[in-house]
Amino acid sequence: MSPIILLSFIIGYFLLLIVVSHFTSRNSSDNSAFFIANRNSKWYLVAFGMIGTALSGVTFISVPGAVGKTSFGYFQFVLGNAVGFVLIATVLLPLYYRMHLVSIYTYLEKRLGHWSYKTGAMIFLISRTIGSAFRLYLVAIVLQKFIFDAWNIPFAVTIVICLLLIWLYTYRGGLKTIIITDTLQTVFLLSSVMLSIYFISQNLNFSLVETFEAVKSSSYSKIFFWDDFFGSKSHFIKQFFGGIFVTVAMTGLDQDLMQKNLSCKNIGEAQKNMLTFTSIFVVINLFFLSVGALLYMFAAKKGLDLASFATPDHLFPEIALNHLNIIPAIIFMLGLTAATFATTDSALTALTTSFCVDFLNFNKVVDKNSASLIRTRHIVHLSFSFLMLLVILAFKVINDDSVVNAIFKAAGYTYGPLLALFSFGMITKRNVADKLVPYICVLSPLIVFFIDKYSASLTGYVIGFELIVYNGLITFLMLLLTSRHAEKTNP
To answer: What are the boundaries of each domain within the chain?
Structure first.
């Protein structure tokens, strides 16, 4: 597949996003539009656009690639995700709307105290920067291998180009622009996965009905795993409950996806958005798993050496770009680009919002749209782009695993304390030892790290996605042990 052809389509794609950005931000580029889209977003646009943000290039490449080892076992995790989304819609969103929040971490300040608030916001900044960098890394290695290596362009330059393009179409309009661009990118993403199934099936000489039957009857279609609870990461209980808690933490306690929900007109529309998004999310993950099964069938038929791939993440791009014709290759690249950039552009906006509100106190300034504050916001936006570049370059050196596993493992360490802070505030009426909270939120992941490292060898128990549960529980217990009864006040 010619690198010039692929690059031409990607350039055209980004030109389209920049044009959309121009029209969505020309009448309003103030902080209110950037942070919460003036609270005027259409719920159905938010729901549809969130698909691209939530799935990302990780789902596009890593989930199909992982089918070779875990079959459809990932769908157990997705079912847990669905329960988590319902909890967000019915428990967290009403709280956020009732308090009229711009940054969801201001809840921690009002309920637990100053240091709890700053700790929660900092956890988000670290977690989202790492997670988004991992996701962008995935598409960058594909762009590098199949496009930029042809001209000997260094990997670091590839990342800079990606981040610069994202910055160009988000720095003015922020969330107001992203609501529209993410909708567009979700169209590319969904079209790509459907057409990928069609073209792979065509190469396997399957009709639509035969494709369904082939996937269903294959060894890859096994969903539920009940054997070896202690020794396997794929056991249903671990996957399902890990899915619930990961979703509540990575979505419901994450400024990125909640920022979109808070841009809706009212709580009713935000909840309709969340529940609609959930149903689409579950179905589309089944399609991605089906792509994975078809890819391995294709590899077996063509005699591809799977051992030659550094990670399973390389299987989909290798087949799409080297073993199918030009149209599937272009569709794959546009789908991958849309999936990854829909996540990264949203993350950069959320990181900028959180830092400006939670650390620079934009919400406490009288003139929130002054030229100096808008200029500061631009600097923060650019700074997070640079920070993401550094994280990606570091990840390239140390990663030897599937990116989807790396992301959820990192989330288990970083989002666990955040889950505990919000849970403690909502479940108990006790006051935390506010100044100890930062130390507790550092100590708990360290304890969980050693538990994860030695649990298999000492007890035979292998920890999977439920790592976040143990981290959150340990943090919660330490918060409880150092807390005190709330002082009664006169009515």
So the answer is: 3-400
What is the distance between the alpha carbons of residues 465 and 406, in angstroms, rounded to a whole number?
Answer: 11
Distance CA 312, CA 71 (A): 13
d(CA 146, CA 144): 6
Superfamily of segment(s) 3-400: Sodium/glucose cotransporter (1.20.1730.10)
Beta-carbon contacts of 474 under 8 Å, excluding residues fewer than 6 positions away, are: 416, 420, 444, 447, 448
Amino acid at position 181, single letter: T
Question: What gap in Å lies between CA 34 and CA 27, rounded to an integer?
Answer: 12
Q: Is the Cβ–Cβ distance between 240 and 414 less than 8 Å? A: no
CB 126, CB 355: distance < 8 Å: no
Please report where in the chains the tokens 């799409």 appear, as a residue.
Answer: 320
- Say how far residue 490 (Cα) sits from the centre of its chain: 45
Note the helical H segments in 30-113: 31-36, 43-57, 63-70, 74-87, 93-98, 106-111
- 337-366 pLDDT, tens digit per residue, is 777 676 777 778 788 888 888 898 887 776
In angstroms, how far is CA 16 from the centroid of its own chain? 24
Listed residue (246, 271, 266) closest to 41, CA to CA: 266
Sign of the Cα torsion 426, 430, 434, 438 reads: negative
Three-state DSSP class for residue 264: strand
Q: Are 60 and 338 a contacting pair, CB within 8 Å?
A: no
What is the secondary structure of 325-378 as a DSSP string?
-HHHHHHHHHHHHHHHHHHHHHHHHHHHHHIIIIIS-GGG-S-TT-HHHHHHHH
**Rounded Cα gap, residues 182 and 176, in angstroms:** 10
Alpha helices in 303-311 (DSSP H): none
Q: How confident is the model at residue 37 (pLDDT cuts 50, 70, 90)?
A: low
Cβ pair 446, 454 in contact under 8 A: no
Token representation of residue 124: 């988000």
* Structure tokens belonging to residue 272: 């309709």
Concatenated DSSP letters for 55-67? HHHIIIIIHHHHH
Would you tell me how many other CB atoms lie within 10 Å of the CB of residue 276?
17
- The dihedrals phi and psi of 235, each to the nearest 5 degrees, come to -55, 140
Model confidence over 75-115: pLDDT tens digits? 999 999 999 999 999 999 999 999 888 788 999 999 999 99
- Give me the residues paired with residue 484 across strands: 431
C-beta separation of 476 from 424 below 8 A = yes
| Exposure string for 49-79, b = 16+ CB within 10 A, e = fewer | bbbbbbbbbbbbbbbbbbbbebbbbbbbbbb
Residue 336 burial (10 A CB sphere; 0-12, 13-18, 19+): buried
Name the pTM for this structure: 0.81
